[in-house]
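One record is given unchanged without comment:
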Amino acid sequence: MKDLFENIYFGRKVLVTGNTGFKGSWLAAWLISLGANVKGVSLEPNTTPNHYSLLSLGIHTDFINISNYEKLKRSIKEFNPEIIFHLAAQPLVRLSYRETLTTYSSNVLGTVNLFECAKELNNLSAIINVTTDKCYENTEKIEGYSENDKLGGYDPYSASKACSEIITNSFRNSFFNVDSYKKNHSLLIASARAGNVIGGGDWSEDRLIPDIIKSSIINKSTIIRNPMAIRPWQHVLESITGYLILGQKLLQEKKEFSGAWNFGPQNNEFSTVNEITLKAKSIWPIISVVHEHNNTLHETKTLTLNSSKSRDKLNWNSVWTIDQTIDKTIHWYREYHENNKVVTYRQLEEYIKSAKTLNYIWT
């Protein structure tokens, strides 16, 4: 596995913020498999069970809040990483209505703190700030948002992530400009905007698959707020592959890859919430859902991404179809709940095998 991504991560010092989260734990696991020297900076896991604890990765993690600049600076300077994948954030839309200050503190101030720390790191070559497809000003357009579309955000979460993108661009222009790369600095910065990711090991609140699983195992139906909402669903490994390819390019000192990048499925892979739940039930019959008709919080009906830039310039493409993605995700939870097995590494190997069959360059 260490020969993937041109062996760029082997022996590298890689910092992952938010490594105790769903996506961060999958990323950390893959980086370790690639032979990277990984350190985490994160809050402690806030669900029981949680993917981070189940994996027992054995990496050092500093449990600190990224909105605390002094603690964050000490942690990062002590490790002196070569690349940072920044995933630490308050990631939930509905929670952002209840915990608005925390959301902005983590997602906005935390981003500022990270880039401010970067000014003092002489070993750092690359930062990838992982944001979201929800950073765009949503006009419900079907053709998908591209990287040059206007940023915005109705809810606090989306707005905070749009702010994070603006901050990223500001630091890139003001302090780490690509025109002065290798003259005044040696740091390249990119941001990654992924669609709705699913996969095993997520137990967060107000997410479709985790809500379905948590209800089903106690013989309850899941309340679905917006069954006809369209989202760019993809397996968590698809977006992580994009981040790793992007990191590879930056570590190879290819400054043209500094900037914003979308990672979402092909247009024919977009699905409604209802379609996802029906596919999930066909795999695990204990799943049951009911539709809610009194949802009062604003939520976008249609959200799709245009990822042609990543496909054309990064040679990034989805490995699994939406049907394969649902199958792998539901089977992960079924193996865990019925057999007490964590099949993360098995599915990672299956994913890589599928990508090799497709002759993808990163393999």
Notes: The chain is about 40% helix and 15% strand. The chain has one domain: 4-357. The radius of gyration is 19 Å.
